[in-house]
C-alpha cells in the first residue's frame, strides 16, 4: 500500500536543524501536492515561578503582563515563520508548497505536537532532532523520541548532517 500524503504537520523549535527539516517537509509537500501546517510550542514557566512572579508584581499586574507578552511573542513568531516560508519558497521556485496554517501554542512541545496531530487529520509529522550528547550518533533528541513513541501517525525525524 502506498500512503497518500495530503496533510503534513511540521513541528519546529526554530533551530538550524528545524530549518533543515523544513526542506524535507517542503519536498514531501511538493511531491505529493500536500499541505503543510507549521507548529511551534512555547514552553511556559514552571508553576512555582508563576507564583513567585505574581507575589513580586501582584497577581493582576502579572496576569496583564502575561497576556501582553504572549500576544507579542506569538506575533513575532508568526512573522518569523512567515519570513522563513518566504525565504524557502524564493530559494527554489521549482519546488512550490502550500502552508495552510502557522500555529503557535503555549505548552510542552511533545504534548502540543501530539495534541495537534490527534486533533487534525495529518498523514505525517516532520521534525528535526539535535542528537546532542555522548550517544548522539545512536540516539534521537528527547522531544523527537517522545513524539515517535506517542504518535498515531508516522513521524519523519531529520538530523542535521555533520557538514551543515
List keywords for this structure.
5 helices; 164 residues; Rossmann fold; alpha/beta; globular; five-stranded parallel sheet
Summarize the structure in short.
This protein is α/β, with parallel strands linked by helices and 164 residues long. It has helices spanning 16-32, 47-57, 59-91, 109-119, 142-150, and strands at residues 7-11, 35-42, 98-106, 124-129, 155-159.
What can you see in these coordinates?
The chain contains five helices and five strands; from the N terminus they run E-H-E-H-H-E-H-E-H-E. With 164 residues, it is an alpha/beta fold. It has one domain (7-100, 132-159): 3-Layer(aba) Sandwich (Rossmann fold). It has a five-stranded parallel sheet with strand order 3-2-1-4-5, sandwiched between helices. The longest helix has 33 residues, at 59-91. The two termini are 35 Å apart.
Q: What is the N-to-C succession of helices and strands?
A: EHEHHEHEHE
- The end-to-end distance, rounded to whole angstroms, is 35 Å
Q: Kindly state the mean pLDDT as a whole number?
A: 79
What is the helix fraction of residues, given as a range? Answer: 40-55%
Order of neighbouring strands in the sheet with most strands: 3-2-1-4-5
> What is the tally of helical segments?
5
CATH architecture: 3-Layer(aba) Sandwich
Q: Largest beta sheet, briefly?
A: 5 strands, parallel
Secondary structural class: alpha/beta
Q: Rounded to an integer, what's the Rg over CA atoms? A: 18 Å
- Principal-axis shape equals globular
Q: Kindly state the number of beta strands.
A: 5
Low-confidence stretches: 133-140
CATH fold-level assignment = Rossmann fold
Amino acid at each position: 500500500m502506498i500512503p497518500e500524503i495530503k496533510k503534513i504537520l511540521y513541528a519546529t523549535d526554530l533551530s538550524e536543524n528545524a530549518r533543515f527539516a523544513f526542506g524535507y517537509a517542503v519536498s514531501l509537500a511538493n511531491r505529493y501536492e500536500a499541505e503543510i501546517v507549521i507548529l511551534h510550542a512555547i514552553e511556559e514557566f514552571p508553576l512555582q515561578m508563576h507564583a513567585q512572579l505574581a507575589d513580586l508584581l501582584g497577581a493582576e499586574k502579572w496576569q496583564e503582563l502575561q497576556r501582553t507578552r504572549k500576544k507579542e511573542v506569538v506575533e513575532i513568531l508568526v512573522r518569523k515563520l512567515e519570513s522563513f516560508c518566504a525565504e524557502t519558497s524564493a530559494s527554489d521556485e521549482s519546488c512550490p508548497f502550500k502552508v495552510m496554517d502557522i500555529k503557535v501554542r503555549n505548552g510542552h512541545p511533545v504534548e502540543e505536537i501530539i495534541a495537534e496531530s490527534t486533533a487534525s487529520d495529518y498523514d505525517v509529522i516532520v521534525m528535526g532532532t539535535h542528537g546532542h550528547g555522548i550517544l548522539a550518533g545512536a540516539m534521537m533528541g528527547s522531544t523527537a523520541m517522545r513524539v515517535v513513541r506517542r504518535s498515531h501517525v508516522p513521524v519523519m525525524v531529520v538530523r542535521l548532517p555533520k557538514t551543515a
